[in-house]
Specification:
alpha/beta; Alpha-Beta Plaits; 10 helices; binds iron/sulfur cluster; 2 domains; nine-stranded mixed β-sheet
Length: 279
Amino acid sequence: MIVTVASGKGGTGKTTVATSLACAISDSVHLLDCDVEEPNVHIFLHPKIQYQETVYTMVPEVDQERCNGCRKCVDICRFSAITVVGQKLLTFPELCHGCVGCMVVCPENAITEGGREVGKFEIGQRGAIRFGHGLLRIGEAMAPPLIRKVREQIDDKGITIIDAPPGTSCPVITAMRGVDFVLLVTEPTPFGLHDLKLAVEAVIKLGIPCGIVINRSDLGDNGVQDYAQQQGIPVLMEIPFSREIARNYSKGRILAEQSPKWREKFAGLYEKIKICAAC
Ligand code: SF4
Ligand code: SF4
């Protein structure tokens, strides 16, 4: 079972839910932080890091001597990451998505595979939880290669919880694609509802079953509940606003570890997810 915990916007409590879900599952579980721009699961989990690796993405390296200026590589590149100016071929590594298209079409074999560092990948352990995350290099815009590297840790036979980046752009889709269930964390405000709708659209396009967790559920309005009902999306959990929860969050404490009541609630949430994913 692979569950991605996502949200249409940041600050909704996505990491609170992902970490608590992982802690409440009694079996061994993989908790993967794919929010590579701002990973913070490790701040709550305190895993013992056992392995670190630098992650690179492919960028073209051009042999100007071989290049005949035919522009086939320029024409195939959808990202304007390669161009010919006069007799010279120029590349823009920051725009390159590493698709290797230019390499494949070059009739002169003038392009070879170079590498650009996108960030670091780390794995570790805390009790029964196996942990993995990516740390995007400062200034790097290309998160998907690093997210794909973190996703290589998915255990197809076991349970994996993925903490996705916020929003609905490319990195989020990379974190959601091919999973069994998406848990959307939101808050009951017009902003929360707006971003939830965008996230639901993305999940529907990917054809993945989903459910909703409403955080700070006693603040705001009924818009999220009404929308969920209209769309036939189950609200699987509500977390009311509590100063104690907020205080513990600011101290880096995992909600499911604050009391047996919350551990049970999150264990119950996982049972509901299993039922919904099988529907
Ligand atoms: S496809 Fe090859 S030969 Fe043609 S412009 Fe690009 S690098 Fe040069
Ligand atoms: S690898 Fe793909 S994205 Fe990068 S320059 Fe070549 S064609 Fe463009």
